[in-house]
Amino acid sequence: MRHLLFTLLLLTACSLFALEVDWSKAKPVQTGALLLKFELTEPRLEKINLMRIDLRTPGLTFTGTARDPDWGKPMPDYPKGIIRTKRIRTRDFMLNCRKQGLNMIVAANSAPWSPWRKPFTHKYANPAGLGILDGEVICDRRPHRAVFRVDRDGRVDIVDSVPEEEYSKIRVAATGFAIILRDGKILPGGGYEKNPMPRIAYGLSQDRHYLYIITVDGRQKGWSLGATGPEIAAMLRDAGAADAINMDGGGSATLCYWDEAKQTPVTVNRHTENGYQRPVGSNIGIYLEPQSK
User: Fold this and answer.
1) Phi, psi (rounded to 5 degrees) for 234
2) Contact yes or no for 42/227 (Cβ under 8 A)
3) What are the phi and psi torsion angles at 50 (to 5°)?
4) How far apart are CA 215 and CA 34, in angstroms?
């Protein structure tokens, strides 16, 4: 019965949330990065942002949130928690990386984290699952479930877990809630995927030439009401993805690119009407290394 119900939900998602994706009509927002925007009215109002990054772009490199200098100490505002990272807005993560000399072109929030308790203003975070930056383990909370993985040799993948003996090979790893698309087939992702809400998910083409990042605004009456996990999986499949991972959505979902003309980060999705952006516990960034002439 459960399997039948999920199959019906998938069929509904595929029929109602099919996107007519034409990348020739996309807006180039950065070197190797294209952006499309959609608005749906059925079965509910949705504002959708879909970005495609060409992973073959010369010099394209990934980075992510690093260990905080006080890594391993108790959180001062939540003593039961252990400091792994410091919460920061995705746009500020991009700005900080650029101040350090990285030509960052795209940034997005990634893993969920704890604590998520009232008053929701904790300074530090302990990201879920596996987090790695340049071979250094930031967190390793098991089971991993679903990991976005970028190796030092440039290979990018979405995997269920990572063996410990391979940690040193990894440039960036961040854990999501669930793998929601595998070989073009939509998968059940668990309770987090059932209800419409703000979303962010990453997808990869079968040949791993393209990374897709999708955001859907939600919880904003008259603007956008959100999507379910199967719905964004269907959208990413329409965009060209074979595999996809659902990352930390809700008010954390953030996707930015660097506007060369204005010299500022542009956040493509809208969190709230007043423009508030939440500090998050984990981000990924894409930057371009200088190329010799």
Assistant:
1) -65, -40
2) no
3) -130, 120
4) 14
Residue found under tokens 């990018």: 156
What local confidence, expressed as pLDDT, does residue 70 receive? 98
| For residues 120-149, average pLDDT | 96
Q: How far is CA 8 from CA 1, 46, 100, 230, 259, in A?
A: 11, 21, 49, 11, 42
Torsion of CA 37, 42, 44, 49, to 10 degrees: -10
In the chain, domain spans: 2-288
> How many residues in total does the chain contain?
293
Give residue 291's pLDDT: 86
Integer Cα distance of 148 and 248 in angstroms: 12
Q: Cα–Cα–Cα angle for 148, 150, 153, nearest 5°? A: 160
**Cα separation of 61 and 53, whole Å?**
12
User: What is the SS3 assignment for 231?
Assistant: helix
The pLDDT tens digits for 46-66 are 999 999 999 999 999 999 999
Q: CA angle at residue 108 from 29 to 68, to 5 degrees?
A: 135
Percent of the chain with pLDDT over 90: 88
Please state the φ and ψ torsions of residue 195, each to the nearest 5 degrees: -105, 145
DSSP alpha helix (H) spans, the chain: 2-16, 90-99, 229-239
Cα(89)–Cα(87) distance, rounded to whole angstroms?
7
- Across the chain, mean pLDDT equals 93
Secondary structure class of 175 (helix, strand, coil): strand
DSSP for 130-165, written as a single string: EEEETTEEEEE-S---SEEEEETTS-EEEES---GG
DSSP 230: H
**What is the DSSP secondary structure assignment for residue 292, as one 8-state letter?**
-
